[in-house]
Amino acid sequence: MNRCLPSDCAHAASVASSSNPLPNACDIRLSLRLLATTDLHGSLRGFDYTTDQPRYDGGLSRIASLVARARRGAPNSLLFDNGDLLQGSPLADYWGQKRGIHPGEIHPLIRAMNALGYDAAAPGNHDFDFGLDFLIRVMRDATFPYICANAFHEEKGGIHDPLLPPWTILTRDMTDETGCPRQIRIGLIGFVPAQTAIWQSIRLGSRLTTSDIVATAKAQIPALRAAGADLVIALAHTGIAPPGAPDAAENVAVPLAAVEGIDVLICGHSHLQFPHPDGPLATGVDPANGCLHGKPAVLPGYWGSHLGVIDLTLCRDGEGPWRVERSHSHLLSVGQPSASTARAGRPTPEQDAIVRLTRQAHAEIRSVLACDLGRTAVPLNSFFSLVAPDAAMSLVAEAKADFLAHAVAHLPEADLPILAAVRPARFGGHRGPSGFVDIGSGPLHIRDVLDLYAYPNLIAAIRLSGQQIAQWLEWSASIYQRLRPGATDQPLLDPDFPFYNFDALYGLTYEIDLGKPARYAVNGALLDAGSRRIRDLRHQGRPVRATDMFLIATDSHRAASCFFGQGVQILHFSTSARSVVIETIRRQGTIVPQIWPVWHFTPVPGAVAWFDTAPAARTCLHDLHRLGLTAGETTPDGFLRMRMDFSRPGQTERQRPGVPRTFGPHR
């Protein structure tokens, strides 16, 4: 039981004076259950639109059943959402990027949330992905308030006004433990990551600015208290990370919890779970009791995987202030059926009311995604995208390069060599053994492209020097662990370096030497100035010099990265990367992607390293026999464990040097 008692939580409950009376000094007690979702990313239904099959591990329609169950056990309850709602699923991306909201319509996600009776919400960084106008239009139809204290939009004259109210107070009539009515004033304040304005700079330019979460909280909480809030809850779209962690700058829930005047935190952004026995270890983090600096907190996963629950006992002495006497934080899991793990529970059913309410939107997006595009002569998958170039990444690279070549044909940049940066669309991770691209040869539909390109980012181009490109590749290569010669059971991948930060640069060739330590951390910080994993970097057979200039086709998210520094020339386009791939397939009819010899590993004598992939990868091993791969056991989580012999990390037949043509756009 995750219980926070006054004796073991430093929470002197900011609703009270600094010296709290003992619990038995209270003569009025009231139970309040707080329910929370976060990072739904458009998961309206328990359905995987890329495979056109039900999914049992998430979705707002399944969360709705948990909400109904949780409310039945609590006379007083409130329901909140913590952002990243409007982007991240085929349904959400279609409404935000292509279809829009027709006159008189309500966004299907907001419509469902209105029906569920949400009490308040805060946006996340991805809710800005389709622009401020779309976000404001969507929020307008919510029957609950949206709040955010640290996001500002530029008006005429360069003045930045708050995008939303920084905080609000909900006055709710509740019932105490004796059945007497009590009125409680719930103060709510919302936050997005301070980096949001940088991440959205390509789409929004200077229209959006954001401020530091902790500094903003210190400035705003006193006003919220002075306005009469009995309890202050932070809807903070930020995760939990120990100081010095690569992602600590954007995950500041721990220092936020230390701000005087905050009583409860709803966290998000990181897609992790709290409380959780494997949560981060840091000062102020108490996963056993579900507290941050003694204050109850939850971080309820992503895609509707969990419902966060915080049970509070509020008490007061006579007419004194309300304070938190005790709390219990926990997560309710939607659950996922699995034959491979005894821990998996029975899946939560979809709530009938939400299914009926969203039936039209569900049918519309399925119809759109079923449209035929063409055919592929070869399978497209991401089973081995982090150990060798593959057909799926080659297809995306060619589509990006061709688009960019035509887009700059009459610009000064037309004379620059064009490269294409591509990252794996999906590579397991938190998504489990089904979280890989797996498209067989045969017909291609729009849903398959969404599998190949997971995000609705726009095409962008960056002008970089050979030196900057080498730094970029060094950062990408930091996804791998350093390998010890002669060690035969060592992990290949760094679990703290997300796979989506890995880029292959098509149009170049190079080696990655894992006998050397990583040069950069995941946040771009220099770890080892003397280490260089990237070897023999070439363009069309010639060594790349530090002063050589290139134009790289990438997307808006990567182009906005702080890693490239200030002053980098970026070309912006209004075309999505997905649209570019769709048009390439339509134009060719039947695609036969060339697997380009972009990169390979340098031998590390006697080293064998393991990585996990999808069980379906067994059927592809005959194409990769030269890589020194051996299929091993199935892990408790359902992955297939592969081992790679680095004594001879060779190349597949289709990767070997001497391919008939060099990668490049069809100008």
Write the layout of secondary structure elements.
Layout: E1 3-4, E2 28-37, E3 47-48, E4 53-54, H1 60-72, E5 77-81, H2 90-99, H3 108-116, E6 120-121, H4 132-139, E7 151-154, E8 160-162, E9 167-175, E10 181-191, H5 196-199, H6 201-204, E11 208-210, H7 213-226, E12 231-236, H8 253-257, E13 264-266, E14 273-274, E15 285-286, E16 291-292, E17 295-300, E18 306-316, E19 323-333, H9 352-357, H10 359-369, E20 372-376, E21 380-381, H11 391-407, E22 418-422, E23 438-439, E24 442-445, H12 446-452, E25 458-465, H13 466-477, E26 490-491, E27 504-506, E28 508-512, E29 534-539, E30 542-543, E31 549-555, H14 556-559, E32 569-576, H15 577-588, E33 590-591, E34 599-601, E35 608-613, E36 629-634, E37 640-645
Parallel strand pairs: 2-5, 5-6, 10-12, 12-13, 13-17, 20-33, 22-31, 26-35, 28-34
Antiparallel strand pairs: 1-19, 2-18, 3-4, 7-8, 7-11, 9-10, 14-17, 15-16, 16-17, 18-19, 20-24, 21-23, 22-27, 25-31, 25-32, 28-29, 29-30, 35-37, 36-37
Helix pairs in contact: 11-15
